[in-house]
Amino acid sequence: MTEPLFSPGRLGEIEIANRLVMAPLTRNRAPDRVPTELMIEYYRQRAGAGLIITEGTQISPIAQGYAWTPGIHTAAQVEGWRKIVDAVHAEGGKIVPQIWHVGRISHPSIIEGGLTPVAPSALSAGAKTFDGSAFVETVQPRAMTEEDIAQTLADYAHAATCARDAGFDGVEIHAANGYLIDQFLRDTANQRTDGYGGAIENRVRFLAEVVDAVVGVWGPGRVGVRISPFSNANNVGLDSDTPALFAAAIDVLNARPLAFVHMVEGATGGPRDWAPGALEALRDRITAPYLANNGYDRAMALEAVARGTADAVAFGRPFIANPDLPARLKRDAPLNALRAELLYGGGAEGYTDYPALP
Ligand code: 8OZ
């Protein structure tokens, strides 16, 4: 019998050849913010995934938080991504960009034009980012005006249109890991007194408006959203009532028949422990196809998809070190070790030189 993990499926309108998804992975190999030839090879090598979700990709200049991350808002960037999409499609794969606004996780030295980062409130994250030569403290952001919010929603719609123009199969909205949308959600980062702050129903408003802006371009069946309710990534802090906040956020997502909801289970890239039952309660509330992530191995992924607790499983670091991860998992073959010192920045080493099985 072929295991469901290795069988075709659907995430909304996106048909996938197997349930193994390449998770979004920041690699900082676009020094001009434009996808490079090397990135074509990297994604082409990984096209055996049922779906590739690209690295976080900024929707506008002010949405950038790290040196050398690619954007998806200029004509040159669309042309660069189109070559990647074509290469993945030629191998029979599917690919969506993760569209990203970092909010306060940035520094003027990283943003084109030296702009001050923006966020729901003028509260420093006390986090670090990389500016191309050193790790620097993130700065105090400027609180977004209602005009800034309207412009940002327009920027999301523009990026979604650029993704469509590049030929992608849909988009994933990055609402996880302490970046802009997560900053609006949590009372640790959002102290607004207008319609976007205060009560939970107000704090989920920005998420709802971003989803609607992107759905307006793509339709709901090709839009996924990534959330990380129990993660303290980027020092965002846990909300004072995580179960209630994320139940409301999931209800916002449930109101649109999305392609998938992608949840980081536990701490991003770290422990999977969470308040007993709380994560399962959120997972069970999601009505869209469910994409599970964080620390899965072969046995866990096989079981989750076989039991139906996940429709697909996203692997991050194993996909970096194993371009042919689905074939290896199917054969239960050994995995290459990750060279963690080559994750961010640099060239082909630690990027396109991991061997596939013969
Ligand atoms: C690692 C380094 C830089 C960015 C995330 C986009 O945590 C990221 C990221 C991860 O979602």
Can you characterise this structure?
The strands form 4 sheets. This protein has an 8-stranded parallel barrel with strand order 3-4-5-10-11-12-13-14, surrounded by 4 helices. The protein is α/β, with parallel strands linked by helices. It has one domain: Aldolase class I (TIM Barrel, Alpha-Beta Barrel). The mean pLDDT is 97. The chain is built from 11 helices and 14 strands. The protein is globular and about 55 Å long. Helix 8 links the parallel strand 12 (260-264) and strand 13. It has helices at 37-45, 75-90, 146-165, 180-185, 200-203, 205-218, 242-254, 278-285, 298-307, 317-321, 325-331; strands at residues 9-11, 14-16, 20-22, 51-58, 95-100, 118-119, 128-130, 135-137, 142-143, 171-174, 223-227, 260-264, 290-293, 312-315. Helix 1 runs parallel beside helix 2. The protein starts with 8 loop residues before the first strand and ends in a 27-residue tail after the last helix. It binds 2-Phenylacrylic acid (8OZ). Residues 26, 56, 66, 177, 233, 268 line the site of 2-Phenylacrylic acid.
Protein traits:
358 residues, alpha/beta, TIM Barrel, eight-stranded parallel β-barrel, two-stranded antiparallel sheet, globular, binds 2-Phenylacrylic acid
